[in-house]
Amino acid sequence: MQITCGTDIIEIDRIQKSIEEMGERFLERVYTPQEIAYCESKKMQKYQHYAARFAAKEAVFKALSGELKDKYAIEWRNIEVINNEQGRPKVHLQGLHIPNIQNIDISISHCKSYAVANVVAVMDL
Question: For position 99, what pLDDT does the model report?
Answer without folding.
Answer: 79
